[in-house]
Amino acid sequence: MTAEASAPALDEYSRPVPDTVPVPTGAWSLIVDENGDKVVTRQPRATDMLARPAVAYLYGGTQPEFRMEKSSDQFHNLQGVIDYECRAQRNKEYLDKAVFLLSQTDDGRRLLELARHNKFTLLFDPSRVAEEGAVGLCDFTGKVVPLAEGRSPAEVALTLKHELQHMEDMSKGATYHANHTPQTARMTDRALEGNARVSEAIAAAEMLLGSPQGPEQQFRTPALARNFWHKNQPMAEAAQAALPLAKKADWTAFAAKVFPAYFKQAATLDYYDARYAEYAKSVVPEVTPEQMKTEKGRQATAIAEQLFSQSRNAEDIAGAITIRGAKYLSPAVLLSEAGLAVAEKALPVLLEAKEKLLKILPGAATAAGLDAKASTQKPDARLPNPYKPFLSELTGPDAFEPIVMPTRIDGGYYTTGERHNAAVSAFMQKEMDGMKSGRTELDRLHYSINTYLHRGAGFANPRGLVSDLVEAGLRAPVAAFPQEYLQDLYGRMYSAARAGVTGDNSPLSKQELKLISHWQDMKNRGMDPVWISAEMKSQSYVGNDKMVESYAGYLVRGLKSPATANAATAPAQTRRA
Questions:
Q1: Which pTM does this prediction carry?
Q2: Most buried among 41, 306, 477, 560, using CB within 10 Å?
Q3: Are 102 and 203 in contact (CB under 8 A)?
Q4: Residue pLDDT, tens place only, 9-39
Q5: pLDDT 10s digits, 370-421
Q6: End-to-end alpha carbon distance in the chain
Q7: Is the separation of the CB atoms in 185 and 176 below 8 Å?
Q8: Minimal CA–CA distance to 92: which of 128, 66, 124?
Q9: d(CA 194, CA 192)
Q10: What is d(CA 453, CA 449) in angstroms, rounded to the nearest whole number?
């Protein structure tokens, strides 16, 4: 529900644009643009910013790695290798940018350096995180941080900060064990998860405000705040109200204001409370009253006492939780009515566990925390996201568009070498407007791309020119490209699949992998990656070109069909984002 109240003003926290070009100083040795990309193909401008080099990290790639298989289907390995290459290239690009973003924050740098010191490996493992219904995990025992894929750099940055906070908290003993009572297990679980989201809020605030030790023109962006609001709105609203504390660098007070809002995130509490309730129910032994006097009954009593008779106090749990290395969490927050209340979906399962336990240990329910009450909190009216207007390459698009025109080109025949926001767009638009025979946007785009490639043929090959367009932001369906390029691209796709070659040795450029990823995204969304839709094809002049359709068919057969997600239970000592 949208509140009538207006969004908080952001003027106080927006970055003023100076009159001078930034000059590298100290650790802030890089000049970058608004997306954090290094300025290397043009002269710096006053609107550019200074950044610190990204912290080095251990990378485990995208798992599982592609393996060639024997198959009678000639497209089987083609689909496998192209899918893997596209995903792996995009994953590494997003993670590099996410690490860069966190490296601009003081707390992000600290946790990244801690992860490197403790030899934690960052990797993408979509199957593993999907099994736990997560977008990220912290496997403390295995020293790996598996991440989901297919999201924006800002989302990856928040997830990574979340998991790195779990890493630090778990190293200080903030993890529940099988011999905790359900109440203290739930309390520790909430302390861990709530604190990880507080850590995300701090990353978003630091990216807004900058480091107190940094220069005036240091890199700042609202990208993390925009995504944190979308992901954790109750906590984001609390963080927005507490920004004055962050501006004074009073991070423990900021964290103390943000943490209680975690108890308002009903869907998250449902997930964790229900998961623990199912665990508690599953580990209580099944025995009849007659069996209680037998050896089976004595064993059941011993198991129940071990699992449900020991408890940690709230002071101990709160003391193991830190932000930026400092304690801040009050035990009273964990013992509050909202902190102790069980999520509604978990309560029936917890009552089943109670019934089983009382057959073995009469009177143990209170001590075990099985008499908890359901939460009575009602959802608050939500404020609109004040960061929604700040859409950037770091946050990803709000809606998928099958045709995205280029917005820039870095160097090349049609520019002076300056990063130009209009040259290619104006050229393409002029060609499209001048085309009289085309009946659809796809026709006009096809004609303008052909003209662009034809006019640049004496200065670069079509592959390089297409890569320039894609680098400039062009995203278009297969039929927008000339048949000569499609034939060449398919040949190189087939060569990559036949040799099983991926990575830097691939015959496909990074830009072409972006283009193929766009076609795969269209297919995953139920769109036609060649024509967008049957209606578009029927209206299209290009749709009558049998040569284009023939080559496009081969390309599309090289794309995987939409995947189906799996679901399973979570392994022990692994934290979910």
A1: 0.87
A2: 477
A3: yes
A4: 455 456 666 789 999 999 999 999 999 999 9
A5: 677 777 777 677 889 989 888 888 998 888 999 988 776 544 444 443 433 3
A6: 25
A7: yes
A8: 124
A9: 6
A10: 6
